Amino acid sequence: MTMTAGTSISTSVHAPALAESELAPLLQKAAPARPLQQSAVLQGIAMAKVVASHSDDSHDVMVSGSPHAIACRRAASCLLVPAPGDTVMVAGPGGDELYLIAIVAQADARQATLAVEGELTLASRSGGIAVRGAGALDMQSDTAIHTRAPEWNLSAARSQCKVSELEYQGAEVRFSVLVSRFVGRACEVVLDRLHLLTRSSFRLTEEIEQVRAGQIDMQSSSTMRLHAKNTLVTSKELVKVDAEQIHMG
Prior knowledge:
Elements: H1 2-30, H2 38-41, E1 45-53, E2 58-63, E3 70-74, E4 87-91, E5 99-105
Parallel strand pairs: 3-5
Antiparallel strand pairs: 1-2, 1-4, 2-3, 4-5
């Protein structure tokens, strides 16, 4: 009776262990293979290459060691817009939360684009801001361009200004030029006072020239000449001609 009890006890103890050892290989074979996901491929920060760009903020990258392209978004801190072929750094937990955080090397370093979704402000709290370029500097706006400063300086070898309508308001204007040319269809000037000093003046009017003034004073140091096909000198009250010699006819 003791041996039978001992045998039964021994069989009951080793039976579960034997069942687990036999089922272990079956369980390993039956477990489905987990697909390669973005979170499994990407661990922390990884190097990748941009393979496609859908917009400035949506790109497909190929991470080293991954057989599939990963969709990611451009991080807000990465102002430089990626292009296909660029080597970039990506980070994130995976899924829809992968971000392109930096561009390590550009495939074409001759051109670069800085783009943001909203308004952009460049500010320097204690210094200046300089914009320099070896090529042309092009400023475009769909609405307006405003410049405000206590002093505005412009220096250029040649300047061209094309404006449909110009309105200027200021306290004083000074022009220091060697040659000035104005070509237009009409010119209207309204002034309270006009001072004009010239060494030589020439004015040509093809049709009619009219002067209306309260008082006209004309003086010449040497000679004054009036010549026309018909000359009329009229006055309501007095006409005075005074000289040492008067020749008529």
